[in-house]
Structure formats: structure tokens, C-alpha cells
Amino acid sequence: MKKQFITLLLSIATLFSSFAFAGTLNTANEKNSKLIRMVDKADKNDWKTLNLAARLSINWNADLELAKQWLQASIKINDNPEAYEILGDYHLRKGDAKKAYEHYYKAAKMGLFKLDKKDLDRIQRKVLLFGRSL
Known about the structure:
The protein has helices spanning 2-41, 47-59, 64-77, 81-93, 97-111, 117-133.
């Protein structure tokens, strides 16, 4: 009897955990869909929206490859330091600290006279942090 009860509890726990996982997938898909709609609604030369969508996608760990495509499109429109910073975040999320550092460094170098102090400070912190670890 005790064995059957434990088996029943484990079955119920497994069932609920699979529903919870499906809910997580739906949430990620919904977020990704919202980002895709946001990019689709934007002007074709709106590199800032592409950067924002990519940043959110990477932060949410939604669709990293789509985020990379958005960043590449953003760079084609306007070679901007923010896109390189976000590319660094992409590579960091993928586990490549060296490439992340290279992109952060490029973003800092490009943004030296283009970015406001807050943005430049954020990028410089990333350069210092990941430069030390290499």
C-alpha cells in the first residue's frame, strides 16, 4: 500500500512538472512572438528596434540565433556600438567569453565619442571584467 501511494505521488508530481514545463515554453514562445511582431512593425531602417529586440531576446534566452540576425541587420543599417555590446552579450550567453570581450572592446572603442557616459561606463565595465578573465 505504501509503495502504491509513493508511486501515485511520483506520477502526480511528474504530471504537474510536465505541465509547468509546457507553460514555460508557451511563455518563451509568447515573448518571442511579441519581439517578432515588434520588429515586423518597425521601419526597415530602424536599427534601434532591432537592437532592443535582440537585447530582450538574449536577456530572456528566447531565440539567440534570431537575436544575432537582428544585430547583424542593425549593423548593416548603422554600424553602432550598442549592437556590438549586445553581440558581446550574445557570445557570453553562448559561453564564448573571448568573443564577448572582443565585441565589448569594439563597442567601447566605437562608442568613445558617440555614447553618453552611462552607456559607455556600462560597456567599459564589461571590457574590464572580461578582459581580466582572459
